[in-house]
């Protein structure tokens, strides 16, 4: 064991390991269809967004947990089955993207294992067991990230969380809230350190040139899915890691489209390289 100077290609690989956070119904699963193909999408047990993916498309391969959701099962056996399936997809060499849907579900399994089933039963357990569960999640992410698949992506629910405990005489609705990954304990903050690209997906009404909301033939507003690339306002579950002069040039909001993200990053790199060339 020793220190190394990481090669440039490691950074390029790390920024293609992404976490997409978003509230339910914000088209996270659909956004996976914009990633490099062929794509393998593996849904964690309990994740139901897979019906947004097309059937019969040779470039989209979806894997869904077959056992009854909610039925008590040995958590470690389920975790092992998940990892065996994911690693088999990676080892096949067939896919340019491997996407894993519903990281919050995997986290629940990890905590259920380290608490001997207490977590999913809603029973009390030692707070220190949170750390053991977090380690299982981090190791899982690392195992799947340190592979030769060009792109590996995870999706996760997002939710509004209280910034602090309730104060004496304070109303619940008056406690400030921020949007974070829908993960337990301190994991929403710690998970940010595991990814170089963390995105927050939401829907925004499409506007015309006059700034008015566009509508379809039924008179309903048209919404587009977008990615927020950095923390702003109430959104804390977004951020980019990379050279400061590059990431600060990437727009805060871009279309929820992998090609748009790559294009924004490439444009930022080109701008930096052009500036450096002009100062020599």
Question: Would you give an account of this structure?
Answer:
This protein is of the alpha/beta class and 280 residues long. Helices cover 33% and strands 20% of the residues. It contains 9 helices and 10 strands. The chain has helices at 8-14, 28-31, 75-92, 103-114, 118-121, 129-145, 187-190, 244-247, 258-279; strands at residues 17-22, 39-43, 60-63, 97-101, 151-162, 177-181, 197-205, 223-228, 239-240, 253-255. The model has no long low-confidence stretch (mean pLDDT 92).
Provide the fold topology.
Elements: H1 8-14, E1 17-22, H2 28-31, E2 39-43, E3 60-63, H3 75-92, E4 97-101, H4 103-114, H5 118-121, H6 129-145, E5 151-162, E6 177-181, H7 187-190, E7 197-205, E8 223-228, E9 239-240, H8 244-247, E10 253-255, H9 258-279
Parallel strand pairs: 1-5, 1-7, 2-3, 2-4, 4-5
Antiparallel strand pairs: 5-6, 7-8, 7-9, 8-10
Helix pairs in contact: 3-4, 4-6
How would you sum up this structure in a few lines?
The chain is α/β, with parallel strands linked by helices. The chain is 33% helix and 20% strand. Helix 3 crosses helix 4 and helix 4 (103-114) crosses helix 6 (129-145).
H/E element order: HEHEEHEHHHEEHEEEHEH
Average per-residue pLDDT, rounded, comes to 92
Low-confidence stretches: none
The proportion of residues forming helix, as a percent range, comes to 25-40%
Cα(first) to Cα(last) distance is: 39 Å
Strand content: 15-25%
Number of distinct helices: 9
